[in-house]
Fold:
Amino acid sequence: MPVARPVFIRRILASGIASFVICGLAETARSQTAEPSPAPSQAPAPAENAPPAPSANAPATVLPQTNVQAPKQAAKPARQKPRTIAREVAPSAPAQAPLSPAAQAAAQLAAKNAVFDQARGNIFTTVGTNSNTIGHDTIQDLPLGANQSVEQLLLQAPGVSQDSAASGSLHIRNEHANLQYRINGVLLPDGVTGFGSIFDTSFIGSISLVTGALPAEYGLRTSGLVDIKTRTDLFNNSGSVGFYGGSHGTIQPSIEYGGTFGSTCPTTTTTSALTYKAPTAAADCFAGVQYYFTGRYLQNTVGIENPTPAYNAIHDFTQQERGFAYMSAIIDPTTRVSLIAGTAINNFQIPNNPGQPIGQNGFVTNAFGVTSFNSAALNENQVERTHFSVLSVQKSVDGFDGQLSYFTRYNELRFTPDPIGDLLLNGIASNVGRISYTNGIQGDGSYKLNDSHTLRAGFSVSAEQASVSNTSLVEPCIACDGSDNGNPFGITDNVSKLGWLAGVYVQDEWKVTDKFTINAGLRFDQMEQFVSANQFSPRLSFTYKPFEDTTLHAGYARYFTPPVLVEAAPANIALFNNTTGASSPGALVDPVLPERSDYFDAGVDQKLRFGCGSDPKSCSTLELGVDAYYKFAHDLIDNGQFGQALVLSAFNYARGYNEGIEFKTKFTSGNFQAYGNVAVAQQRATDPVSNQFLFDNTVPLADLGGLTRLQYVQTHFVYTDHNQFVTASAGAVYSFCGRPATAAEAFGDNGMSWCGVKLSADMIYGSGLRAGDANIDTVPSYTQVNLGIKREFLLPNDPKPMTIRFDVVNLFDKIYEIRDGSGIGVFAPQFGPRRGFFLGISKKI
Structure:
């Protein structure tokens, strides 16, 4: 029966208030774009002689930061004799080192790109949403640093719960997948869900998780927006190489490099890093091309989660390769062209669970004359390939900022079974292939109509060619109880589909007053896949700042979510009748439908400042936030692993609801930063209305009152398998000195020094995902704590620092289950990582 939701909200509101005692503040992400020079009210075109603006995450030698003191100098009498600026310079910074022509060219181009970066930010808005941002420096400082995956990093954001790699690795507000990833504002299209991450955190300048009632410009995937901005500090003809390794045979080398070339603009050679000012450039000069690339290789013996609590998994070796490249060029004062490309190739052995009996599914006791099999000797493997690229043209002129992008993505997944072993253990051995090839165009623009109104509009259209192949080895049978099985034979079930998605939106950001802003929009989406559907989706949200450090937000959004095309491919279950791979008699295979939902979100954020001196930047700050949400959905999309192949299949619940409340706190004081998050939530749904064959309808279960699993789910609101009632995360970073150690400090020439050292810790807590028949139980709760220490220091006669780090994963070696192998769409148990020790070294080049 449905649960009384208001009671739930009152209960979690009451219990959640106490969670504010969690201390912390993750470093607020540094802006990836510098503030431009004073500008008119309308968004200006980038000036040809714009002075170089500093990048938020760049070292002192990257962008000369020449105009920092310009306003102060302008305020002094013009005839005053120039004097040396009294500025404390860290020992590691060569304050008066002359800049080479190449460095000056990089500084000029960086200044121009900073203005374009800000203009790109004008195109999009997050008014009325809940956002949490992590900058590149913070990523590097946390345990594991840039050696962790994007999915691991996101576990430190509010409301993000951990899951197994087979189930998508994480969930935002208890939703299954339905995340959209954007790189520099461009939506990365859907692909094939696999185990491996396709992103390398090395290229990320900042990553923001945006949740709540999203504005109209964000459609389709709406459980959360992962907004990635690329780095801006790698364009000075430098980079780094690194090596990371440790427990479980981990080997992880990496490289990154970036620079600037092709500039025809004039430079000067008489300036230094602190006094440099870009010369006035000719209007027709070419500022050059910015570029950088990153590459990483990973291998270890815990590619995906161990199905046993043992320290070492059986047959779990992985090799993963990831690369990323970025290029941009300003082709005229108002136009920039950029290219992004990425690749990921991941190979996995599927780990084995020893001691499994044969004949437990399909009653197969003889496969090609083999009558016994050791499940520890299974040889299943999976290969995943992903390639993507985005070509964008950005235009900024007369108050208009726009970006037009072409994007493409190719995904391929191949699961290879153990023919004899899978047939004996599971009654079926499936060789599964999934391919998705997507191409599309996205256009977004904003126009500042006046001081009160900013209009935004845009569109997107994409075509996806999806191919799903399934060749299964089964045995023929009539009774299918092991008494009349015949010789194994193969069944092939292939599906191919060209699907289309299109969307268009318009919205107005209205600044009613300096403190109150309303954003209203309307979106229309059309899908042509295995079903055809469309929807108009209104969006309305507001932000109110009654005081400088107090922000209230609220919003409503109507959402339209198509299923992932390859996961919605229909299965021809009739092919498997009278075989050991047959579905329940009379099972339905209704097509997967788009999800339609209404979403409400409201929250408040408060910043407290204390311990302030004459400089406001010296204040310690404590930020507190609370956000509550409620969603009601028709045709709620879910998916799971149904069968021995570790691939996901989608289905719909007729109705579902999702509700929760999140608390977050952040603290910073000098060189200390910390954060903490707690979320209390639930998602429940009822009545599968598509791909019903995925639910068993033959075996009555005592714990379900004598109903089959399908009968129970059809008549009860059940927790979704990825529901977790309480989720929490926390972390802290402390920096000694706040700068790299000099060579003398690093090697003890002047005694012991802690300069350049950073200590860090983070943790995650989960009350446990669902388990049992129809998700009526949960796995036990768990806490995982990670530690890190690193030191950045200079070598003698070398201005580019070296960094060494040591990390401990699962400090207390907590043995815990993420999944226990039961529940809807859960096939095998998966345990969290055991304690591991890792050492890394990297060097700027």
